[in-house]
Amino acid sequence: MNLKRHILLTAILMLNLSIAFSQVTLQNLRCEMLQNPLGIDVARPRLSWQIASTRNDVQQTAYHILVASSLAKLTENDADIWNSGKVNSAESLYNLYAGQTLKSKNKYYWKVKVYTSKGESSWSQPAFWLMGLLHYKDWEGRWIGFDRFFTGDNEAGARLSARYFRKEFSTTKTVASATAYLMGMGLYELYIDGQKIGDQVLAPTATDYTKNIKYNTLDVTEQLRQGGNHAIGVILGNGRFFAMRQSKAYKVKTFGLPKLLLQVNIKYTDGSTATIKTDDTWKGTADGPILANNEYDGEIYDARKEFKGWSEPGFKEDKWLRAEYVQEPGGTYEAQLNEGMKVMKTLSPVSITRRPNGNYILDFGQNFSGWVKFNVKGPRGTSVSLRFAESLEPNGELFRTNLRDARATDIYTLKGEGTETWAPRFTYQGFRYVELNGYPGVPQKSDFSGCLVYDDMKTAGTFESSNSLLNQIFKNAWWGIASNYKGMPVDCPQRNERQPWLGDRTVGAYGESFLFDNTALYKKWLDDIRYAQKEDGAIPDVAPAFWRYYSDNVTWPATLLFVADMLYRQTGDSTVIRKNYPAVKKWMSYMKDRYMSSEGIMTKDSYGDWCAPPATAEDGKGVNADQKHPSALIATAYYYHLANMMAGYSALTGNAGDREGYTRLAAEVKNAFNRKFYNSQGYYGDNKLTDNLLPVYFGLVEEADKGRVVMQICSIIEEKNNGHLSTGLIGTQFLMRTLTEAGRPDLAYRIASQKTYPSWGYMIENGATAIWELWNGNTAAPKMNSQNHVMMLGDLMIWYYENLAGIKAAAPGFKEITMKPELIEGLNNVTAGYQSVYGLIKSSWTKTGKKFSWNISIPPNTRAKAYLPASMQSQVKKGATADGAKYIMAENGRVVFELKSGEYAFVVEQ
What we know:
By secondary structure, this protein is α+β, with helices and mostly antiparallel strands. The chain folds into five domains: 8-131, Sandwich (Immunoglobulin-like); 139-335, Galactose-binding domain-like (Jelly Rolls, Sandwich); 344-451, Jelly Rolls, CATH 2.60.120.260; 461-800, Glycosyltransferase (Alpha/alpha barrel); 806-909, Maltose phosphorylase, domain 3 (Sandwich), CATH 2.60.420.10. Helix content is 20%, strand content 30%. The protein is built from 16 helices and 49 strands. The strands form nine sheets. Strands 24, 25, 29, 30, 31, 32, 35, 36, 37 and 38 form a ten-stranded mixed β-sheet that branches. Strands 39, 42, 43, 44, 45, 46, 47, 48 and 49 form a nine-stranded mixed β-sheet that branches. Strands 4, 7, 8, 9, 11, 12 and 13 form a seven-stranded mixed β-sheet that branches. Strand 30 and strand 31 form a beta hairpin. The chain is globular, with a radius of gyration of 29 Å. The N and C termini lie far apart (63 Å). Mean pLDDT is 94; it is low at 1-23 and 28-34.
C-alpha cells in the first residue's frame, strides 16, 4: 500500500478570539476532502483549517496542534500522540503531522489553537481521523465468491444475477467500537441485522482492479453495541469488474466475476478484540431477486424471490452454498479517499402522459443521471418496466437511438404484498423521460422520485447575473457536471460508453472546480491516469483504461499535467505537481522520441479539434460526428505549452536541473512552429479559429505579430461567424480567456449570449437542460449526440468566475486573490461566491448608469487586489465596512486597492 500520500484532514472547529466583540471560527478541516475521515492509509497526514471572522485583516501568525489517542486525553490537553507546541507560521493548510507512528485501525483525536493578528483563540472543538489498514497483512480474511456462472446468468450479454453472502456471529461482551473494512467487487451493499450500512451507493469507486482497489471503512458500532447474535449480509453487483460488454476483449477490459474481502474489527470495553472475516464458513447464493444487473442495460428484480430476513440472525440458509475461496483481483489495496456516490437530490415528475398503447411517459423536466424510485401496488407476478431516454421522438415516443445498444431498462416484478417500493442498486441511467409499461392502475406523480446520483461533494460556487441566458447556461452546466461525476469524471451517463476520457476534462476540470469541491475526485483520477501509464511512457485516452485506447496523441494525455496544475492553482497543494511530474516527464520523452520531426514539429495527433461544428446545423443533419481530423499544429502547440509548464515546475518538484532542457525544448518548438504554421498574412495554419487561438493563448506568437493574429481571431468571429464560435473541444477550452486577455471581453460575451447556432444558448433554445456533446446535437446522426456531456463547456465556467465575477487566484490556493471583473455593455450585475480552501470569496457588483457598486468578501489569512473601474482614487467611495483597504495605484482605467481579509463595499461614480 502507498504510505507516502499526504492527506488534508477536515472537521468543523469553533474558536473564539480573546478580544472583545471578535469571533473566529475554524472550519473545514478535512481528510482528503472528507470530514472526520474513516480509514485513511496515510503515514503522515497533513492538518488544515479555515478561519472565519467578523473582523477585517485577520491573519494567522502561529498555531498549536494537539493529537491524542482518546477524546478524554484530548479534553485534558494530554497530547500523548503529538504536541506540536506553538509554531510560528501563517500556514493554515497542509501542516504535516510529526508525532508518533500511526497504527492501523486506531482512532486519533486532534484540536488546534490559532494565533492571529487580532488575538489568540481558544482550543477548537475536537476532530478525529481513523486509520485504515496500512499493511497487506492487516487483512485477516480471504477473498470469497463463486468463480463460475449460474443458471440465468447471461455471460455474453454481461448480465449476471447478484451474488448474496451472509455470516452469523455473536458478541458476548459490551462493544466499545466496531469497524467494517471491505472490498466488494464490483459493487456492494452491506447489511447488519437487516439494516443497510451507510448511505453510499454504487460503492466502491471504480479503478483498474489489476492496478489498485479501493476499500471502504464503515463504522458499525451502533449495530453491534447490543450483545447477542448478529448477521452480516453483502450483495455484490457487477459494476465494472465484470465489464458491461464482454464481446470485444481486444478493446474492453474485464476483471472477473464478483468477489468479496471483508473484515469487522470489534473492540470490547474490557480491552479485548475480535475479528469477523470472510472465509469459507460464509454462505452464498446467486438465486436471489436481482436476476440481472448491468450499468448500461439496467437491473431486473423479481420481488417474489426475496429472502425475508436473509441478513438477520436465524435465517435458514440450508439451501445456500458454501462460499468459495477465489483469486484476489491483483491490484494494491488503498483506502478510498475520494467521496463515495450518494443520492444527492430527488426530483418529482413534472408530468405523466398516457400513450395510445397504454404505456405512460414520465417527464422529470431535467436531464440527469441516477434512477427512479417508485411505489406500486398490484397482483403478484405483475412486471413493470422502466425504459429511459433523454428526449422524445416527434410522435411523443422515447428517442433511444442515441443510446446505441445500451438497453437502459429496469424491470420489477411484484410480489403482491400491498404497496411495494423499489429502486435499483447496481445500475444508473442518464435520462429525462421514462416509459412506464405494465404499471397496474393509474400512476401518480407522488409515486415516483428521480434520484440524482453523484459523488458526495459540496457545491463550491454560486453565480447569478442580469443575463438570464447566462444564468440558465450555468444551471445546465451544474446538472451536466454533477451527472457525470461517478467516482471518476465520465463523458456521458446514458449510452453504452460512460468512459473517463481524458480530453473532455483537460481544461473542463478547471471550470468545474468553481462549481464543485472536486479536489478529491481529481486527485484520485490523476492516480488512475498514472496507473494506466505503460512502462515505456504511453498514456491512454481513457483512464482507468477500461477501454484499451492508447492512440499516442498529445492533447488527451496532456490532461495529466493540466489537471495537476489546476489542483495546485486552486488548492495550493504542491504535492499534486510533485507526484505527477515524473509520469509527465516520462511521457514527454516518449512522445518526443517517437513523433517529433527533425524540424521540431510534433507530427502525431489523433482527434484534431474534436467535434468542431458544421458550418450550419443543417449541414450537419444526419452526419456522424465521429470524425477525426488530426492536426500537427494542435499537437505542436500543446507540446510547447507543456514544455513551458514542466520548466516552470521543475524547481518546485526538486528537478531544477530539468529547467534548462525544457526551456530550450520550448524555444526550439516555438521556432519550428512559427516556421511551419505562421502565414505572413497574419494567421496560423488554415486560418481556423482554433489554429489562431492556441498560438495566442500559449504565447507562441512573436510579439510583433500578435496584434495581427488577434485581429484574425476577431474577424473570424465577427465577420465570418457573425458573432459565433466555430471551435471544437480543443479551441473552446481557450476561447473565452483568449478573447478577454486580448482586450475583447465584449466579443466573448457576445458568443456566450448567442441563442442561434452554434452556441450554448442554441442548445437551450432547443430544449437542453444539460450541455450537449455536439453544437448541432439536434441534427447530427444519433450515434454520437449525447444530450448530457460537458466537454463543450470549454473555459466558459472559468470565464464566468475569473472574468465576469472577477475572482481569480493570484497565488496558489487563493492565498492572494485578483478581483477584476470585466465590465461589458449589456451586463448590469453579477453576484458570485466561491468556497476556496481558505473560505468564501464573494463578488457582487452592479452597474447603473455611471455608478458602479461592488461588495467583496475576502476570507481570513488571505489578501486581495481589487481593480475598480475609475481613473482616479477620488472617484471611489469606500463603505463603512471598507476598513483595511489600501490604495495602491491607478492604471489602465482602473484604481487598484489592496484588501486584507474582511467585508468591503465600494461605490464608483464617474
